[in-house]
Amino acid sequence: xxxxxxxxxxxxxxxxxxxxxxxxxxxxxxxxxxxxxxxxxxxxxxxxxxxxxxxxxxxxxxxxxxxxxxxxxxxxxxxxxxxxxxxxxxxxxxxxxxxxxxxxxxxxxxxxxxxxxxxxxxxxxxxxxxxxxxxxxxxxxxxxxxxxxxxxxxxxxxxxxxxxxxxxxxxxxxxxxxxxxxxxxxxxxxxxxxxxxxxxxxxxxxxxxxxxxxxxxxxxxxxxxxxxxxxxxxxxxxxxxxxxxxxxxxxxxxxxxxxxxxxxxxxxxxxxxxxxxxxxxxxxxxxxxxxxxxxxxxxxxxxxxxxxxxxxxxxxxxxxxxxxxxxxxxxxxx
Length: 334
Known about the structure:
This protein is α/β, with parallel strands linked by helices. The protein has two domains: about 40-120 and about 225-325, Periplasmic binding protein-like II (D-Maltodextrin-Binding Protein, domain 2), CATH 3.40.190; about 125-220, D-Maltodextrin-Binding Protein, domain 2 (3-Layer(aba) Sandwich), CATH 3.40.190. The chain has 13 helices and ten strands. The chain has a five-stranded mixed β-sheet, sandwiched between helices. Helix 2 (about 55-60) packs across helix 10, helix 2 crosses helix 11 (about 260-270) and helix 5 (about 100-105) crosses helix 13 (about 300-315).
């Protein structure tokens, strides 16, 4: 009798365990599943065409640094002239642009702010062919100098140079030539041209031309290209701003540390740029890195922003007074 009772008890416990397991499985199956980590879609307006100069961003995307921040970034190319207006009205959240653009936009009431300083040195220069006799700024007096337009970083840099060395603008014959600097120099339509260091000088030297180059960062300290957002994004989504800057800086550090590996990633991202021009594109990247290097990476120099505002004020380009401290933040450079 005792044996039968024990046996029955065992069967009862076994049945109870099975029923409990079934109920547990049903409960688990009915539970609300955890949502997947949220991914934020970001369109980054580049302000230019696909280019090897964007290699740090290509590296950050390829190696998953944006993804690690929960960001799916899309690069939006093109020469759109109203990017800062779109940014200031929150139709865009992030733009690659220059310091002068930020100051001019802010003076027009657009709440944009520079959050990452990409270029440690101002990358504009004045180029002439060897033998032109232009070896120092004073040699520009009475000469014809070509410039892409009477606006933008090239023009701001040019006026900063003249101010720094005390040359009156009317002492130089400044001609708008669009983006024909290399041809204008070699065809002797101008004596010198205002260029970006990593563009026409590299192309001309690769073609065998001997050059004289006046590097503007030797005469002036201005903020150049960097990552720009708006005050609304900073206020409502500071974690997104932090993620964008952190991913960008990670890609920038990788590019500086291993340019060859970074260059291979750029070739995958923009294969149409390479082919026969691969050696030239590699030289462009080398020139860029010289202007990106410097510690701490990404941090803005307050003095450069004061210089920017002072220059724009002297040129009567500001629509309203601007506080230099309102133009940038170093809060997200970590």
